[in-house]
């Protein structure tokens, strides 16, 4: 492919390069660049569960090898879905906040929680060998425990 464009860079409205991809002969290598990784919107564990070849490189970037159209569509659907999540108003409901139980807030999509005037937030357990995702009321994020590995309350729809 000498002379042809082989890489693509995707920037957000502020100019941060969130993603890029490199075109190879038999695949695309999709990169989650540092601003995307730091955003807290995406999960390496989610990617590892959904795609065959996922790596974290020495720069802390995540790569996903895409070998067919179905995988490309699945990756794009994941990116779009996770981009719909918003931070809450308080410090503990900001995307990326990690509480003392190693549970990360991944934001809300405006859906109501099951407590008075609360929104349902997507939470991710960061404990090794867990990676559970579940829903929690905004008022519980700061103290929430994982339902799978820490005996926390069952998650709610988010």
Map the helices and strands:
Layout: E1 7-11, E2 17-23, E3 28-32, H1 34-38, H2 44-50, E4 54-56, E5 62-66, H3 69-83, E6 103-112, E7 119-125, E8 133-137
Antiparallel strand pairs: 1-2, 2-3, 3-5, 4-5, 6-7, 7-8
Largest sheet: 5 strands, antiparallel
Radius of gyration: 17 Å
Helix count, DSSP H or I runs of 4 or more residues: 3
Shape: elongated
Q: What are the main properties of this structure?
A:
5-stranded antiparallel β-sheet; 158 residues; alpha+beta; 3 helices; 3-stranded antiparallel β-sheet; 30% strand; single chain; 2 domains
Task: Provide a descriptive summary of the structure in words.
The protein has helices spanning 34-38, 44-50, 69-83, and strands at residues 7-11, 17-23, 28-32, 54-56, 62-66, 103-112, 119-125, 133-137. The chain folds into two domains: 7-83; 91-143, no CATH class. The chain has 158 residues and is an alpha+beta fold.
Task: Describe the structure concisely.
The protein is an alpha+beta fold. The protein contains 3 helices and 8 strands, in the order βββααββαβββ.
């Amino acid at each position: 492919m000498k002379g042809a464009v082989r890489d693509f860079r995707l920037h957000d409205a502020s100019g941060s390069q969130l993603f890029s991809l490199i075109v190879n002969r038999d695949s695309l290598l999709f990169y989650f660049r540092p601003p995307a990784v730091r955003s807290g919107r995406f999960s390496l564990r989610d990617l590892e569960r959904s795609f065959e070849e996922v790596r974290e490189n020495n720069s802390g970037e995540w790569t996903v090898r895409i070998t067919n159209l179905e995988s490309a569509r699945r990756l794009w659907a994941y990116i779009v879905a996770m981009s719909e999540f918003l931070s809450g108003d308080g410090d503990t409901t900001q995307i990326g906040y990690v509480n003392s139980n190693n549970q990360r807030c991944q934001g809300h999509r405006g859906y109501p929680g099951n407590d008075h005037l609360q929104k349902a937030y997507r939470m991710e357990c960061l404990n090794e060998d867990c990676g559970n995702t579940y829903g929690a009321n905004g008022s519980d994020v700061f103290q929430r425990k994982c339902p799978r590995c820490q005996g926390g309350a069952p998650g709610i729809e988010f």
